Every structure is written in C-alpha cells, then in structure tokens.
C-alpha cells in the first residue's frame, strides 16, 4: 500500500479520545487497530518492509502497547524479540536508563543480554510524542554495544518534537502516520 494511502487508512481507524488523560490532550487510541484484523495485518506488513530495508537483527519493543506490535513483527520476520520495561519488571540482571517525561521522570530497563554487541536493533512503540522513552531505550541498547538501526511507530505527533529529537540523535524514524493537534 502506498505510504499516503497507508497513513490515511490507519488514521481513519485510530480512535481519538478528546481531553484524556487531561483536558486539552487528544489521546490517539491505537487499540482500534489491534481490534481490526485487516488493519493490524497491514500495519505489520508495512513495518516488515521497513525492517527488511534496515537489515535489522533484533526487534525491541517499549512497554506496553509496543509489545503488541513488536511481538507480531518479530514473529513475522523470525527475529529475536527484546523487551524494554519499566524499572523492576525484569527478573534478570538489567541495564537501566532514567529519562524525563512530560509530567515527571521514569526509568526503563532491558536485560543485559537483550542482544549481542554489534547487533542492529529496531525500537518499536505505538507512538512518538516527546521522544524521551525512545531516546532512553536507544541509550540502553547502545550501553550493551548494540547499534540502533531505527525507530518505528504507528503514530508520530510531530508538534511535540520527539521525532525531530530522534533524528537529531541520528536515529532513522519510520512512523506509519502523523497527527497534528488540530486533527
């Protein structure tokens, strides 16, 4: 499917919840894509093509909606799947990274053996907002010697500046669609 058609197709199927979690925010709910088998298939196929071009060795997904996309993508591509979790959720030895959010700070972790040094990792999440979580995840994989091949997300919210920050950090960004606050 052509990228403009793909973006329109997905945007028509993503639910917007106004004033959630706080007044003035339009929450982009991708669970509607997970509930639509054809939309889910189209989305995973689009990500698969990107992974092939990037020569990715490992799919790494951000807690929690990223797990749904990343798991399906790793299965589709027959690639290892690594989890990026909130602090304290992984039972093995971990590497941690603190980062700031719009409303505070957080810590994410990966297992220290999430991938081998030199492997090319694709970071997957549902959306790119301010970019903090994805930048922190990239740092985690770089700490264990991996190369972050790129970032993939269903939605980019470019007005929040996250995709620009990721590109400034020399990370290729692939979002299937973008929303402005006025949409």
Automatic annotation (TrEMBL):
Family matches, as InterPro entries: Ade_phspho_trans, PRTase-like, PRTase_dom, UPRTase/APRTase
Location, primary (coarse class): cytoplasm
Matches recorded under CDD domains: PRTases_typeI (cd06223)
A molecular function (GO) term: adenine phosphoribosyltransferase activity
Chemical reaction(s) catalysed: AMP + diphosphate = 5-phospho-alpha-D-ribose 1-diphosphate + adenine
Enzyme Commission designation: 2.4.2.7
Superkingdom in the source lineage: Bacteria
Protein localization: Cytoplasm
Pathway: Purine metabolism; AMP biosynthesis via salvage pathway; AMP from adenine: step 1/1
Stated family: Belongs to the purine/pyrimidine phosphoribosyltransferase family.
Stated name of the protein: Adenine phosphoribosyltransferase
Organism of origin: Actomonas aquatica
Gene: apt
